[in-house]
Amino acid sequence: MTAARSRRCLQAAVLLWAALSPWALALAAAAVPAKLKAAPAPVATGPMSKVEDATMFRIYYGQSFKVIKNSGDGKSYLLMQNTSKMASKTRYCTGRIKSFVIPLANFSIDTTTSPVSFFELLGVIESLKGITSNQVASQCVLQSYTSGNAQLVNRTDAQTLSQFTAHFISDTDEDRGCNFAAYVPLEEDAPLQRAEWIKYLGTFTNSEGRANTVYDAIKTNYLCLSKAAANLSTRFKPIVAWIEFTQGMWTFVKESYTLQYVTDAGAETVDATITNKRFNSSDPEDMDNFHAILCTVDVVIDQTYALEPAEYKLATFLENINVSQDSCYSFVSNRSIWRLDKRIGASGTLDWYDGAISQPQLVLGDLIEVFFPTGNYTTIYFRNLAKEEGVTEIGPEMCARSISTPMEPIILPCE
Ligand SMILES: *[C@@H]1O[C@H](CO)[C@@H](O)[C@H](O)[C@H]1NC(C)=O
Ligand SMILES: *[C@@H]1O[C@H](CO)[C@@H](O)[C@H](O)[C@H]1NC(C)=O
Ligand SMILES: *[C@@H]1O[C@H](CO)[C@@H](O)[C@H](O)[C@H]1NC(C)=O
Ligand SMILES: *[C@@H]1O[C@H](CO)[C@@H](O)[C@H](O)[C@H]1NC(C)=O
Ligand SMILES: *[C@@H]1O[C@H](CO)[C@@H](O)[C@H](O)[C@H]1NC(C)=O
Ligand SMILES: *[C@@H]1O[C@H](CO)[C@@H](O)[C@H](O)[C@H]1NC(C)=O
Ligand SMILES: *[C@@H]1O[C@H](CO)[C@@H](O)[C@H](O)[C@H]1NC(C)=O
Ligand SMILES: *[C@@H]1O[C@H](CO)[C@@H](O)[C@H](O)[C@H]1NC(C)=O
After folding, report:
1. Domains in the chain: boundaries
2. Chain segment 327-354, per-residue pLDDT in tens
3. What is the topology classification, in CATH, of domain 57-214?
4. 298 close to ligand 7 (CB < 6 Angstrom)
5. Which atom of ligand 1 is nearest to the CA of 206?
6. Residue whose CA is closest, atom 12 of ligand 3?
7. Does this chain's domain 57-214 share its CATH topology with 228-394?
8. Mutate to test the pocket of ligand 4, among 231, 236, 414 (most ligand atoms within 8 A of CB)
9. Is the CATH code 3.40.50.1980 the one for domain 228-394?
10. To bridge 197 with a disulfide, which of 96, 185, 301, 313 should be the other Cys (CB 3.0-4.6 Å)?
């Protein structure tokens, strides 16, 4: 690349960045001339990531830096290659912009609220040196903790957390330091959009190539499964009640991504006009109404929170909905009552909020089996309460790879 061309690229990138964020204009005006005079040190530009499905972040590439705009926390992250001049001179930590030197030498994660599986798929767990809780639903992160590679750190102690090059959080209200970086896959509306956050995290470790490969494989598999499910549903489209019981009230789970999963797996949820209602379990009239709706469904997914998932059994469910085992509901006679807490870590942390976010094809595969049972597929996240299926507890001894090796996504058979 000629000097002139590289200059144009750099300028274009800076202008693009400036166009996106008014605040950057002043910054760009001040920074660009100096940078153009000193020919930037050549930086190996590896593969780039481009957002296809996610709606809450965008990535822009410059010559020796990247900018990610995160609409979850409203911040821009300026990632400067450690070999660049900029990296040794520039630091931003304002309400709108933060800078990081990449590839990150090490990092920590607020594991009480944030998924670690994205980092496992990227293959960067060896650099994960701090976790805020060891109740993680990941065998290899537990293994890393048990072997001393990662240490437990106090999640509210910004001073201690500042020893890490970056501290990743997914609760944006918890931002307490210049090294805090937010990722918010849970705020996206659809399963693939959530999974694409691997690209966001990949930029911090120059793992774009890996992030692209993993996301492409997952997306291709997801779309293939979804197509197969659409075919299955031409004969019969099961009706699903995805419900939860909280503080004495039964409600329908209405998060967009759950509805998307049901549709993509070839089924249908209870009508939206009905799902807005709430049903008081101590009010017989409410329960009559609830039972009438349940009479029309084929499958129940019970997302009720359980302090101890292993103790949540068929009897618990039947008691909560006040029906007996010999009732005529088709989901009872057809034994189709499911929970999404099959894989749990210590203290009942659900892998549903971790591994299932980064590998939505596995959730889809499970749901297709739930809706169109073959008996020839072992579900990963869903367990059938009606068949008294139990939970799987995740422990460090289950980690079957070296922590320096990336976790491979599981690609389900699909023609
Ligand atoms: C930049 O990061 C790479 C990869 O971690 C490392 O090998 C290298 O020493 C770093 N270079 C500088 C100048 O910090
Ligand atoms: C993380 O990397 C930085 C920069 O290389 C270093 O100063 C710091 O000691 C490292 N922290 C841990 C916990 O390894
Ligand atoms: C964690 O850090 C906060 C703030 O520094 C402190 O108040 C709290 O006592 C610490 N908690 C533990 C368990 O050490
Ligand atoms: C759809 O189902 C029919 C049989 O029900 C089968 O012959 C056909 O191959 C299926 N198509 C796809 C794309 O799976
Ligand atoms: C549920 O119904 C009972 C009995 O009618 C009532 O005491 C209770 O306040 C209701 N709960 C809610 C959350 O409305
Ligand atoms: C629970 O079921 C029993 C037996 O069908 C019924 O008598 C009772 O009223 C129900 N309770 C509620 C709160 O619906
Ligand atoms: C119950 O299961 C059978 C066999 O899987 C199926 O043919 C039937 O349609 C199911 N009934 C309902 C109401 O879902
Ligand atoms: C079960 O699944 C395997 C692997 O997908 C397949 O080879 C086999 O034919 C299936 N068996 C039945 C009975 O569907």
Report:
1. 57-214, 228-394
2. 779 999 999 999 999 999 988 899 999 9
3. Rossmann fold (3.40.50)
4. yes
5. 4
6. 154
7. yes
8. 231
9. yes
10. 185
